[in-house]
Amino acid sequence: MSTFRYTRWDEKTVAEAEGGPKVAHADVDFVYEGPLTGESRAQLLLHYRPDGTGTFVGYELLTGSFDGEPGSFVLAHNGTFDADGIESTFEIRSGTEVRGAGGYKSGPSQEVPYTITSR
Question: Which residue in 2, 18, 30, 52 has the most C-beta neighbors within 10 A?
Answer without folding.
Answer: 30
